[in-house]
Amino acid sequence: MSLLPADQTFVDNFLAAIAPQEAAYRHVGLSYLAGKVGERFVIRQARAFLNTTAPKLKSPHFQSSNVRAGNYSLTELNLTIRGLIDELIGGRIGTPDGDLYFQAADGDHHAASFIPFHPDGLQTQLRFNVLTIMGGQLALIRQPDIDWEIKAASPPYDGLQELANELNLGPLVDTTGRVEIVAYNVAVIDGYLGQVLTSKYALRKVY
Questions:
Q1: Where are the domains of the chain?
Q2: 69: which of 62, 89, 177, 190 fits an S-S bond (Cβ 3.0–4.6 Å)?
């Protein structure tokens, strides 16, 4: 599995953009939601959050017959940021709870895009660098079957979207697997106080 040259350029540009502050990203967490395809759990949606401070809370791991979700630090996965990208493009991430798969599109390729000034950040005058890696087409989620399965699980959730919200994954996209790698500001300047604030004070809580 690989990226086409244009998609590889997006990855290279993202890595170049975060390189000056990469050492500050000491707490990188991967939140994911995966569905069962055959005997494998395939990532439907995931986000890797590059933070300078540890999250206050860690989401519990969840697994039912057809759904698996949770959060891993890159330390737990023994990966760097570049290593995570390589594993995603390779189509498989090894975890302490078993492999997660990220299937490619037709032609055995993944796709990528890079937004250096993500709209979510601009709303609060912060710069978010966001790399998105996209996989192949996914089967539609069987509803209401899956939601009932999640409601009956332990711990229970109201449905798939509530589980995704717990992991800060945003609205679910049914058709294509995707992983967003979100690099937040390392510091901002408070114009009122006239001083530099680290992301510990400037950024909202993320996983």
A1: 2-202
A2: 62
